[in-house]
């Protein structure tokens, strides 16, 4: 996966995130709402993971290293970063 592939994945996830956020918010007990909330959380995590991978690849390239040596970190690690 190269930077362009990652950017395309990010764009697809951003579009899905927008679509999920635009859906009407029905009662929290509604199973479709719960499914959407679960999917939205997963999309947000996937986005964070993709951005982290892209940053790693760019940093390796800037340091003269092989960007292909960068690997997606576990979501638990990426979600634990401080902003």
UniProtKB/TrEMBL annotation:
Pfam families per record: DUF2630
Chain intervals for the UniProt region annotation (Disordered): 16-36, 60-83
Higher taxonomy: Bacteria, Bacillati, Actinomycetota, Actinomycetes, Micrococcales
Organism: Arthrobacter echini
InterPro entries: Uncharacterised_Rv0898c (IPR020311)
Protein name, per record: DUF2630 family protein
Basic and acidic residues: compositionally biased ranges: 60-72
